[in-house]
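Office hours follow-up: a student asked to see two folded examples consecutively, so here they are.
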Amino acid sequence: MEIKGVLFDKDGTLLEFHQMWLKVSQGVVAALLTRYPTQVEVTATALLEAIGVYGERVDNYGLLASNPVEDTSKKWFDMLAPQCDFVAFNHEVKGLFNQQVEQMPELIQTLPGIKSTLINLKQKGFKLGIATADTKDATLYSLEQAGIIELFDFIGYSDGDIEPKPAPALMEAFCQHCDLHAAEVVMLGDTVSDMKFGINSGARSVGVLTGTASQEELASHAELVLDSVAEFTPCLLKSA
């Protein structure tokens, strides 16, 4: 079936991931340890490793790389045992993540060649969308700062009101909004979760190596693995 829509993950696919989210997660952890001192010692290292951050490396299968903030909040809630309910704690963690993103706008950068690729796809008539595990506020702020928000017909995020990737809910929302079928869509992302999302949705899946996953990790789940979204053209799928 002819490709009519392209759905993208955000961080690690369109925007630089590593420095941005390492610094953001480190900042959130520092704030939490100040606000929630515990009787049982919980270190910054332990909190970061619990979401897949090991020094300067982010695990492709960890919560920071692939999951919505709610999952990170739940892991930290269990570790810190704060004197509040999970709803309040989750709201605070989301606020801290959004605050850290807004405090470091200089780290929000499109990966090389991304904007021109998006413009080219848009000019050729493709419907473009975002499907991210990030929150609404951080997603919209990042895309605005990167200067690419106006290029998207659909922006989907994981803010607790829709089932996150790899469930197909965000694909279904994109298709409904743009009057497409999933088989007419290709999903581009940098994680195994992104590839499984495309498969679960009935779409095509293309992996990129600008984020957390390796060629080997992506290859068994993707039709193609590219160095970057900047290399992508829908005609590549004809020979996949």
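And the second, which I mentioned at the end of office hours:
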Amino acid sequence: MQRALPGARQHLGAILASASVVVKALCAAVLFLYLLSFAVDTGCLAVTPGYLFPPNFWIWTLATHGLMEQHVWDVAISLATVVVAGRLLEPLWGALELLIFFSVVNVSVGLLGAFAYLLTYMASFNLVYLFTIRIHGTLGFLGGVLVALKQTMGDCVVLRVPQRHSRGRGDMADHFAFATFFPEILQPVVGLLANLVHGLLVKVKICQKTVKRYDVGAPSSITISLPGTDPQDAERRRQLALKALNERLKKVEDQSVWPSMDDDEEEAGAKVDSPVPSEKVPTLPGKGAAPESSLITFEAASLKL
């Protein structure tokens, strides 16, 4: 463990050195507020539902709660989330767009969380949900980053259940499954839990059960309509495939190096300057190979004289 710490610190330092000002500022703010929590109570920086709403209006907590952590493992998760967002999303969006994304996600998490606890208090009349609960941390931002990464991986991902279109509601294609948001090693477990939740939602009539439709009266013999196989899905996949093909062709064209005209001229000049091999001439008996044609001409002329 002690041997791995210097390498981890060096790797983290290299990542932060190449990061933008936004990523460095967010990481520094998380570390500063965590260290500050040892000296003073930083609870006023977290979203407390009873203080966010009137008459207190602690509005600033919507901007600070996402940077406040109370445990070292939470700090590690927050730093890793910000660094991953800077490495994978910032090159696509830019530093300003990443900062806007961070702000919108954290403000939304603070407001929605406060409203959820307010509704819980209205149902139970327990003041703990208003003045004891503190909403803080970057878990909401982590969820937003996962969704953004899923959207930038090439799939046109939308929410599966709320999506409405001409065919009805939802898209039951395999690449829209909830388990695909997680690493492959966790997908079987997440898929099992997701299927149980989906079955429960079907029983309470929030979601509809998947139905296979057979059109016997179609011009062809039998037309089968399965979820995720309609013409709109096929057209979307075709567009994605064309886009991926164009990107690959562009990369191949950029990597290929074509010879220039100067190289062709140099090769042609080298061929002209190279001596032409002499033709084979018969050798005289008892002697070695015959000399070149020019020497033979001179020797013959001397003998005749």
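Two things to take away from it. Residues 276-305 have pLDDT under 50 and may be disordered. Residues 11-153 form a domain with the Rhomboid-like fold fold (CATH 1.20.1540).
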